[in-house]
Amino acid sequence: MKKTLMVAALTGVFATAAHAQSSVTLYGLIDAGITYANNSGGHSLWKASSGTVNGSRWGLRGAEDLGGGLKAIFTLENGFNIQNGTLGQSSRMFGRQAFVGLASDQFGAVTLGRQYDSVVDYLAPLSNTGTQYGGTIAAHPYDNDNLNNSVRFNNTIKYSSVNYAGFKFGGTYSFSNSTEFANNRAYSFGATYNYAGLNVAAAYLHANNNINNQQFNSSSFSGAQAGDYTFGAGRQSTFGGGVNYTFGPATAGFVYTQTQLGNAINISPAQSGTSKGISLGGNSARFQNFEGNIRYALTPALSLAGAYTYTRANFGGGVNPNYNTVALQSDYALSKRTDVYLQGDWQHVSSNQDGIGAYLNGLGSASTRQDQVAVTVGMRHRF
């Protein structure tokens, strides 16, 4: 009897120890506010907004210790609209991220599923739009370089290195999942280096699409891009680099990106703010973005941030609009998890605009004029 009780007690101890080696975390962020725009489809607009700076989301993140510095890991992350409760990312259950993999303390991590590309992983944190200091509405025109992760990639295998004295690198390959191996696929790679207050990064993204069937428009399509595309184009190549430097309470940075499109049909309605999108006529097209940004912590609770981006575009056929975009933000932390913010954004389209109006990302409709201004008062809560 005593032996039986001892075995039962030891079994309970070992079960508790094994359980302690696994963890699952529930996390999330809710961003809600009120936005005013001076021109949205020709009219002034007041709207209750969700995710003006950071997309509202909740997720599950887990890890199991397999021993020898090896872990099994997973992330399931859902995006939603806090104002009406609907799903984001083309109504996907876990549209922001969904992956599983193995992580080694010595060799890095390999993960499989719906994931971010290397531009988002390495370069975006140095930009204004890729952070909490500018976010969604501060994206470069049409989020042409994906720094605001408008596009996630399905069927993706990703490698992420460990930190080698401040240097990290990685890459992705997203399968087409069809016999047309090269169509509807994507791949990327990037790296970052941090030393003291200096942070530099570079990244590259390449995507192919079968324009003939345009199945990438549908979220049920099996390819790498499905239902959340920015460009209807046979080929997209995005590359860029950036630098940030932190000195005391201030961080200043510069980011350059370029996106080149081949056999480009259109910019999607969701990204252009127009009901039919912007036609690119099957031409080659190009965007060049030059962004300067700065943020300053006035106190541990109060911060100020700003960015200016000049974008040079060529849509083919002699259409060459230029964009000037300014984002300003003040943020006050009520606690470690809750903050309130005031953000103002302005965009002006100049040069040979050919009737193309300004469009700040996520407003709903493009301006009927060359300028668009938006002001948002909002709050964020993290859990």
UniProtKB/TrEMBL annotation:
Q: Which InterPro entries match?
A: Gram-neg_bact_OMP, Gram_neg_porin_domain, Porin_dom_sf, Porin_Gram-ve, Porin_Neis
Cited CDD domains: gram_neg_porins
Coiled coil regions in record: none
The record's subcellular location field reads: Cell outer membrane
Membrane topology, from the record:
Multi-pass membrane protein
In this protein, which residues make up the domain named Porin?
Answer: 8-346
Q: Where is the signal peptide?
A: 1-20
Q: Which UniProt keywords apply?
A: Cell outer membrane, Ion transport, Membrane, Porin, Signal, Transmembrane, Transmembrane beta strand, Transport
| Family matches, as Pfam families | Porin_4
Q: Does the keyword Isomerase apply?
A: no
Question: Its quaternary structure?
Answer: Homotrimer.
> Under which name does UniProt file this protein?
Porin
What organism is this sequence from?
A: Paraburkholderia ferrariae
